[in-house]
């Protein structure tokens, strides 16, 4: 059903959705890689598109910037539009000195300074993690395409311009790879809904040096990530078709 943020009608959104933060990147992905594309959402400028990739119905939806915005769109996709799988395709800044600009990072887990998980009233601290099946498949696709990648912990922050300089560097001591601003709410929302999610980010800059991706490098690196995500989404869409809604996995986890 339509929401305050999404005007898509019944059946207009695929079972698997790619989510870049930038709605214009959603437009680019849809028009570059999908066939028979139509725009199902323009509310608040947060464009959403559906089309076909290798014969599989997929959607691409902008999430906007930050944990709250991702939380809204991911919640509605899972609960209002019966989406099974969301794959975030975004950018991040390197925290760890061993992470190179241009690397692909697969978010196994997520640290945060956000209070987002408090809504679940848990008697402790929740550790948001990726769906292992998606993570494993993403790593395999990256290896097969010779795309440099790292898998590990990311840091989802509510703050872009920090008041205490150097604060984000403290996370390096715990092996955290990059900082970004959306993975936390995606993983929490997926866990609560019993659905699947993976966050993939391309490193655009680093706190350890001044180098950043040029526009040309950014386009090439992001396209490598996007192609990997599209393969995952197509596989997820096929699996959802075969399993049917009634057989959806309600408990996150991986079974060999």
UniProtKB/TrEMBL annotation:
<feature type="domain" description="Nucleoside phosphorylase">
    <location>
        <begin position="16"/>
        <end position="232"/>
    </location>
</feature>
<dbReference type="GO" id="GO:0004731">
    <property type="term" value="F:purine-nucleoside phosphorylase activity"/>
</dbReference>
<keyword id="KW-0808">Transferase</keyword>
<dbReference type="GO" id="GO:0005829">
    <property type="term" value="C:cytosol"/>
</dbReference>
<dbReference type="GO" id="GO:0006218">
    <property type="term" value="P:uridine catabolic process"/>
</dbReference>
<comment type="similarity">
    <text>Belongs to the PNP/UDP phosphorylase family.</text>
</comment>
<dbReference type="GO" id="GO:0004850">
    <property type="term" value="F:uridine phosphorylase activity"/>
</dbReference>
<protein>
    <recommendedName>
        <fullName>Uridine phosphorylase</fullName>
        <ecNumber>2.4.2.3</ecNumber>
    </recommendedName>
</protein>
<dbReference type="InterPro" id="IPR035994">
    <property type="entry name" value="Nucleoside_phosphorylase_sf"/>
</dbReference>
<keyword id="KW-0328">Glycosyltransferase</keyword>
<dbReference type="InterPro" id="IPR000845">
    <property type="entry name" value="Nucleoside_phosphorylase_d"/>
</dbReference>
<dbReference type="Pfam" id="PF01048">
    <property type="entry name" value="PNP_UDP_1"/>
</dbReference>
<dbReference type="InterPro" id="IPR004402">
    <property type="entry name" value="DeoD-type"/>
</dbReference>
<dbReference type="InterPro" id="IPR018016">
    <property type="entry name" value="Nucleoside_phosphorylase_CS"/>
</dbReference>
